[in-house]
Amino acid sequence: MAVRPTDSWRQSVVEEARQVASGELDAECAFAAELFPESMLARTDEVLLLFESELAALKSPSDENIFKAIQHVVLELNRVNDQYDGAAYETDEREQLCKYIEESLAGAGIDVDALATRRGLGRHEITDEWRAW
Length: 133
What we know:
Layout: H1 5-22, H2 32-35, H3 38-57, H4 63-83, H5 91-107, H6 112-118
């Protein structure tokens, strides 16, 4: 099963708070809590949990059904990003979310390369049609 990127984002917030509390990091240099507010993390987790559930419900899925699940998760992540003025997901976070989607698909037994190829896409382009983040 793919590891949600929100797990590492939360860990970044905790580690940075520990560093500030211990004096290892000046509070003025701390950014993780601002970059990853708990409300954004919780909402992202809701979206990813729904995606996981959708994938688990697919039995012998068609490409169309798989792409519907991808579209749904991407559009929901767009909504989360919009709630944070388009700044919920920076470059690293975008890459982590795309990797999570690919790994989730693979974990569900879907050959991501073959799926993408059948659509005339590269593996890393499967979210591009809908992705605004």
